[in-house]
Amino acid sequence: MASLVGSRVERKEDKRFLTGKGRYTADINLANQTYAIFVRSPHARASIKKINIDKALKSSGVVSILTGKEIADDKIGGLIAGWAIRSEDGTEMKCPGNPPLAKDNVNFVGDPIAVVIAESLAEAKEAAEKVEVDYKVLKAVTSTADAMNGDTIHEGIDKNLCFDWLLGDRQKVKEAFDKADKVISIDIINNRLIPNAMEPRACVADYNAASEEITLYTTSQNPHLSRLIMSAFGNVAPEHKLRVVAPDVGGGFGSKINVYNEDIVCSWAAKKINRAIKWVAERSESFLTDIHGRDHVTHAELAVTKDGKFLGFKNETIANLGAYARVFGTVTPTYLFGPCATGVYEIPAAYTNVKAVYTNTAPVDAYRGAGRPEATYTIERLVEKASMELGIDKTELRIKNFPTAFPFKQTLVHTVDSGDYVAGMEKAKQMADYKGFEARRKESEAKGKLRGIGVTSYFEACGIAPSAAVMSLGCGVGLWESAEVRFNPTGQVTVYTGSHSHGQSHQTTFAQIAADELGVPIENIDIVHGDTDKGTFGMGTYGSRSLAVGGIAIVNACKKIVEKGKRVTAKMLEANPEDVEFKDGEFIVSKSNKKKTIGEVAFACYLPGVRDEMKSPLPEGDEPGLKETSFYDPSNFSFPAGTHIAEVEIDPETGHVKLEKYTACDDFGRIINPMVVEGQVHGGLAQGIGQALYENAEYDETGQLMTGSYMDYTMPRADNFPEFNIGYTCTHATTNPLGVKGCGEAGAIAAPPTVMNAVIDALGGQEVTMPATAEKVWKACKNLKKSNAKAA
Amino acid sequence: MGKISLEVNGRKVEKEASDNTLLSTFLREHLQLTGTHIGCDTSQCGACVVHVDGNSLKSCTALAADVNGSKVTTIEGLETNGKMHPMQEAFKKLHGLQCGFCTPGMVMSAVDLLQKNKKPSDTEIRDWLEGNICRCTGYQNIVAAVKEAATKM
């Protein structure tokens, strides 16, 4: 039987999406449901003096209006940070309370204050406009760089500082810098982004008064984790009385990891009014209240010898957390950022210091790449600058500092099990025709255009992550994953995974894995996820972990099935279990060549007896049935890596940047489905290029979001991209049995510095902040003209 | 309130709806045709594209009353006798979709492109799809799928 792993298997999920049969949360309507509209703060920072709901209550169709007072009276808990980070001085991070409905203070535009529940959406909207809130407006803090000098947002949190964290050794770094021939320094702004999954967040909550069960349909990347948080911290219901279903989910990119205010409020309120409640975000609400990403201000320095060896690295970063610390809010700018900031290089001494600050803006949390794009942007902009200042070819300088052997003990935290960074670089150069660039630059110049080339070599720590490691670093939960493999008596298989697919293609790739492991045709395998009532507890999908952690749990559960199958076959065929081999769906006794198919074994496990004989196929100690579970805790992170090369052409008359060529050569370890991996790379690149050239979330000084719709926030469109040139080097991971590493985040991690290095190369080394809009680039072109004129 | 009469996916429908009901709302809420998606509130994203009298239209930009009497085709009506349209087949074959949310609008828009331009170039495809936002695919496989479908239609 041909192996399916490695094949371009068409997706099992596609037909329903292509024919309108997908079932997203907003498509769900329950009998007798009501509709919720949230009353939100129009101010970035204010105290609530009074809420008057009298007029609104009299509005047509209103069922109930609930505020922060009722939710506090019912002792419903608030939203939480999932990781506890300690400051350099040993003190614990400082987190404000974050009630699901604000009672006393509001801290960003969009912070919810009350929920209006009515018989129809139109009536809920009309009544919500009649809720009168009397605010005392306070001065907002919105700037990342100046947040520590602003008014105190949360009582008791001085300088708006959540923590002042250090990773690395300042003294060693100082010594390294003292020995340096040259210090390259850079100031970077990593622009704030809005994830913008195309499906707006939504939830439908239902309550069954007889069984006292709440069911919440919600747009989540991790329904089990959401249930745990809502139960343990939200006090919404005990876990066995709370079912969370994340049906088809239209993209996440990190923005649907968090339990949100609306999930808690609708679940709680459904029980209170004893009716189903539906809430669907309008896009403007998504802009205001979905978590945002990035938003760092960084000063970094690289100490080098004159021949280009890296000696030391320092990174001083201010990270904006927004108004509150959320699930991955505090780990994104620390353990997901700091360890990767030294990049793919051997740097003997390094430190990263992060001051995480609160501001009156939407909470910032994990967005595709989460910390690793910021880290990669820092080091790769710095290395590119070093290449310009040292006059060493940008690819040679990188190669000179790559590790020469694996496992590679990276400077700060990780031990990278496998990789071949030189091979990746060489292949990328070939794919991009790096050698031919100068000729292309001349061609562009002849047309009056500026052409630049940019390179990035990156690695990322993903496949998160070993529980003991992450819990030692402050994570509130373990990051293992579960799988349950269940045979039906007639031989088809259902695989339950604790991870969740919202575009990643689990239904197909996980079935490929199970098909290979079990020798069962892929059409006889179903993958089930997204419902806490189906399958075992799992941690969900983020950090490129579904395959590298969840996929391995499936492999391990399949292996347990095969082990049992061998025992049963041995009993059935009167052989020793050690003599039974399993291949392509058949158990074969090596000595006699007698065999049983896995389907026959499954049937025997469920129907363990024979007419007229007292005979069981089950060995002593084995129970009937064929179902196995695995909880897999990885032994290490996984470390995808690669080199990307971009070429841009700039029209100095307009400042327009045209991305001419984009080459990505990645090492994701073994590839399960090349078609799916290509799609993941393309999507990641689009988001990364979006950050570099188009996207930017901007607040004014009063805390109003200036980019709150698709009219203002530039979402990349089809005509913004060239055809991407994708290739791979595949060094298998040594830390998991599939040899896989993860591919979901690479594009978003590598593309911003790759594109910006090309833009800045075209501009003769002039720094431009992301996004490199026509206006900024046009100004830089004018400066370039001036300095060229002076030089002449 | 008024009576809306349409022919949707070949079936005559007649429903009462308030005068301010958008076509997108009418399809989703009154006819339970939830394949048409709502991704924004400014008519930018294109997830709600359907065909009205043969031409693609963002169904959130029209009142149901405006198109009264029209023939409407939604993503649910694109199959013939249970067989997917060549555009749907091409999206599947070339991985032109991931989360599936923008897909119905993207497919309906692409079908209309090929009605108007049988052999579009890459640039023409990318230009045409400028009104449909996809966050997952980076568009490359969508463009490839449209080209593939053009050879089959």
Percentage of residues assigned to helices of chain A: 25-40%
Strand order within the widest beta sheet of chain A = 3-5-1-12-9-10-11
The stretches of 5 or more residues of chain A where confidence is low (pLDDT under 50) are none
According to DSSP, the number of beta strands of chain B is 5
CATH topology category name of the largest domain in chain B? Ubiquitin-like (UB roll)
CATH class of the largest domain in chain A: Alpha Beta
Task: Kindly report how far apart the N and C termini of chain A lie.
Answer: 71 Å
Order of helices and strands of chain B: EEHEEEHHHH
Shape of chain B: globular
What can you tell me about this protein's structure?
- The complex is a heterodimer of chains A (792) and B (153).
- Helix content of chain A is 28%, strand content 23%.
- Chain A is an alpha+beta fold and 792 residues long.
- Chain A starts with 13 loop residues before the first helix and ends with a helix.
- Chain B has 153 residues and is of the alpha+beta class.
- Chain B folds into two domains: 2-77, Beta-grasp domain (Ubiquitin-like (UB roll), Roll), CATH 3.10.20; 86-152, DNA polymerase, domain 1.
- A five-stranded mixed beta sheet of chain B has the order 2-1-5-3-4, with helices on both faces.
- The model of chain B has no long low-confidence stretch (mean pLDDT 97).
Q: Secondary structure elements and their pairing?
A:
The complex is a heterodimer of chains A (792) and B (153).
Chain A: H1 14-18, E1 34-40, E2 46-52, H2 54-58, E3 62-67, H3 68-73, E4 105-106, E5 112-118, H4 121-128, E6 132-137, E7 161-168, H5 170-178, E8 182-190, E9 202-208, E10 213-218, H6 223-232, E11 242-245, H7 261-273, E12 277-280, H8 283-289, E13 296-304, E14 310-322, E15 349-358, H9 372-390, H10 394-401, E16 408-409, E17 415-416, H11 421-432, H12 437-446, E18 450-459, H13 467-472, E19 481-487, E20 493-497, H14 506-518, E21 525-528, H15 546-572, E22 580-583, E23 586-589, E24 595-597, H16 598-606, E25 627-632, E26 641-651, E27 656-667, H17 674-693, E28 725-728, H18 746-762, H19 774-791
Parallel strand pairs in A: 1-12, 10-11, 14-15, 20-21, 27-28
Antiparallel strand pairs in A: 1-5, 2-4, 2-6, 3-5, 7-15, 8-13, 9-10, 9-12, 13-14, 16-17, 18-26, 19-20, 19-25, 22-23, 23-24, 26-27
Helix pairs in contact in A: 9-18, 14-15, 15-16, 17-18
Chain B: E1 2-8, E2 11-17, H1 23-30, E3 49-52, E4 55-58, E5 71-73, H2 86-93, H3 103-116, H4 122-128, H5 140-152
Helix pairs in contact in B: 2-5, 3-5
